[in-house]
């Protein structure tokens, strides 16, 4: 009798779906391994597990296996809603990744009441037959408390609004200190200049201020003045360590999880009007044609003469609004000068191939109870675009300056799209009769920019922009200057927001050291190590912040549309899959029409055509098609929105 063949045993990380099944990603296996709900053996999302493959003839669409061992538990606590009876309770997880409730014994309620948003620490992990057990360690918000759902979601990402006591103590000490005479000795005093901030109406932390002058030679002198946060946040102190841990401020509609305590972010570091503030300045001399001919980077002190709002400045620029004109008569000339320069800079950026994906972003309005009362489109008006152009130029200028100095630095990198993504994009565009020039391995931003220009104002504009954006890589931070494909730039960094981004803070620290002492080989080694870790950590936390912001948006969009069940809306097909079509409404709310609701025919999924096509009627639902829907039902727990096609009712 021959030897029995051993089963192939693999290990990897489990990604679990709320419906109970999941996939294990293994480094030593070409594709992910499907795990049915019955084969989990108590594993939770993100656990490192050992897997036995089942016989290949039993596989369906992908390799399948059974979890045989939990190698490393990654979940120690769960955020959710507390439900209780007289003798015991449960925490129902908010995350879509956790299907199983956490059992809570009465002695471990810790004062939690029905409907509260809580944190449950796991005391006993699940097995094949029993749920996990836990105890309540934190009450995030009481049942019905405004904003509790957003606070709970932030907490599920381990994002905390409050700071440790050591961090608060250092922040308060910095606030009391203020600005001393000694700190001004080597700074350029710009307090007599017309310098001002332009931000959103609800902004509280002002990172950047701007100024402009017309020089005798006809050139512009554009000044970008950034809060000198590195002066107050000392390297390796409690503030610095906490800022690095957080990586970025996170904006969750009406709530903010700040990178720095408010004593700094809204206080001594914020460029508040009529208050002396320490800054790092970049002066850029630019010709009327938009060419940068000279620049200088230096430490400074400013006193902002105005706190301007985007909408007011846009009203002045776009409509020459008389009230705004009268109110800002003392800086009106500077504002129009800035707009003229920004238009020129924008054209230069466009001509070199910078990609402007014209996609609508949602603006969600919440009432005092945290209920979404409106979902609209966020406006990007003239003033928003003007400040954006100035910040882009400052970031590029600083990045190139320090690249040639060969100092350690943190760059913002956006790599060119992967070849297979470009091929898919080419196939998609051919369906609209659009040719994307260039080969997949040597694609230039200008080629994609030309496509985006060609669809402006056309019916297919939104969908072409959307699919082209999906073909792009995600930007990240790196100590290597590898260019920014989307901006069509060789040099780029993030310099302009040190209050809310750690990469900006660490490069300010490097810049200040260089300006004062230069960078020796010893300090270069020190900062190279710091910059490498900061790049990795900041990229990680940025992805986490984007995920949290996206989840909050989905949550509130689902809640908003739940008040409109049964109503008709016009939209556009924004996605096509083998299980249905996604439809995006004009206000950016997106829902799914399930394929089994298309009852007029049997529909096949044609991946290469981005379409569902009926076998009998040949009726097609294609990406980019305009369509009318009715809101069918909304599952708030899963944040799922379901539509029906109006024509089929």
From TrEMBL:
Single Gene Ontology MF annotation: RNA binding
Record domain S1 motif: where: 566-646
EC assignment: 3.1.13.1
Compartment(s) where it occurs, according to its Swiss-Prot or TrEMBL record: Cytoplasm
Keyword annotations from UniProtKB, A to Z: Cytoplasm, Exonuclease, Hydrolase, Nuclease, RNA-binding
InterPro entries found in the cross-reference section: CSD, CSD2, NA-bd_OB-fold, RNase_B_OB_dom, RNase_II/R, RNase_II/RNase_R, RNase_R, RNR_Ribonuclease
GO biological process, alphabetically ordered: mRNA catabolic process
Reaction(s) this enzyme catalyzes, per UniProt: Exonucleolytic cleavage in the 3'- to 5'-direction to yield nucleoside 5'-phosphates
GO cellular component, one term: cytosol
Major site of localization recorded for this protein: cytoplasm
Pfam families registered for this protein in UniProt: CSD2 (PF17876), OB_RNB (PF08206), RNB (PF00773), S1 (PF00575)
Protein family membership: Belongs to the RNR ribonuclease family. RNase R subfamily.
Function: 3'-5' exoribonuclease that releases 5'-nucleoside monophosphates and is involved in maturation of structured RNAs.
Name under which the protein is recorded: Ribonuclease R
Lineage of the organism: Bacteria, Bacillati, Bacillota, Clostridia, Peptostreptococcales
